[in-house]
Amino acid sequence: MDTLASLRDTENSFFDFDSPDDQIPGITTAGDLKTWFKKAGAEIIYEINTKIINHITGPKLTLKDLCRLNSYVREDTHVVMLITSRMFNTRVPIATKNHWIVLADKLKLINGHEVTEQTLLTELVELKCFSWGKVKNHLLKNTTLAGVMKYSYAAFVISKIP
Question: Would you list the domain boundaries of the chain?
């Protein structure tokens, strides 16, 4: 189960997270994450689809959103994104908002060029990010830009923790 679920449990007064099978108590909202980052000294710079209602019914990130997030990938910031882990693992049974990642690099075409608003949705992409304790391109082989958009829901940008 996600490291965040364990951290989440320390502040969860309604449900106990006792095992990886406990799904509801492990849910971490954008609000929780932003609060933790603020307590650690970070500042929220930009956010999209982070209201709690967006976690339930919210839209997916657009190509314009992804390009804007790319513009924040730099040495003095962290870009945190809510996705469906199915983007990384086809064995995930349902496609729901269930996994937070931190971008380690910009979303790029597999040839290394940056994704732009003119990039075709059928282009193959790579996304180096921190997930499950590792920084690497976690995307499944042959993931298209449309595939990333299909499984991306919310994001926020924070300053590096001082």
Answer: 28-159
How far apart CA 125 and CA 149 sit, in angstroms, is 11
Using alpha carbons, list the distances in angstroms from residue 128 to 11, 104, 136, 160: 30, 5, 5, 18
Helix (H) or strand (E) holding 158: strand 152-159
Per-residue DSSP letter, 55: H
pTM given for the model:
0.82
- What pLDDT digit, counting tens, does each position of 113-146 carry? 999 999 999 999 999 999 989 999 999 999 999 9
Query: Which tokens is 121 given?
Result: 């949705």
Measure CA of the first residue to CA of the last residue in the chain; give whole Å: 28
pLDDT at residue 158 is higher than 90: yes
